[in-house]
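QA checklist item 7 of 12: single-chain prediction sanity check.
[x] sequence parsed
[x] length recorded as 199
[x] structure emitted
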Amino acid sequence: MPAVRGIIFDMDGTLVDSRLDYDAMRREMGLPSGVPILEALAAAPEGPARDQMLSTMRRHELQGADEAVLFEGVVEFLSHVKDRGISAAILTRNSRESTDRTLARLNLSFSPVITREDAPPKPDPAGVRMIAASWGLPAHEVIVIGDYLFDLQAGRGAGMRSILFAPGELPHFVHEADFVLRHFGEAVSLLNVLHESGT
């Protein structure tokens, strides 16, 4: 039995560069720098101000969907994953609307695709657990690949190994990851290591 039978991918910043400017989004929404946007929205009272924040986020996300480009090596790695019979899913904090638009534009297919409308957003592990259950796989046979702390925390919370995709400068939370992937050209070799070692 292979050591890895399922991979849960983050989307923005991991498979695709959507060029989203989160700082600009926060400024338009009147949020402090660094504040998680979804959590700030959840805490905002109902009313015109919150509606405007939601409209701003939607506009940015749809623009990101229309401008998203794949990171180098992603197509080849996804083809390799498919050839090996490994299940592949998306778990994103993005909306269903922007996620579906991104995947359709770039001709990407995953099953399942879980957005913030489908499960509590990462770092809550509910989404990764939902995906593993849909595959009928135990946590130790599933890995999570993402570029942000919340991806790693979601995987850890579900008892899964996590891989940090970090093509640029290593972030301060790199120690939270089990492995670091600098380029998708290295992903097949890393997957082979996981298969051979089972650890």
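[x] summary fact logged: Helices lie at 22-29, 37-43, 48-67, 74-83, 96-105, 126-135, 149-157, 187-197.
[ ] second reviewer sign-off
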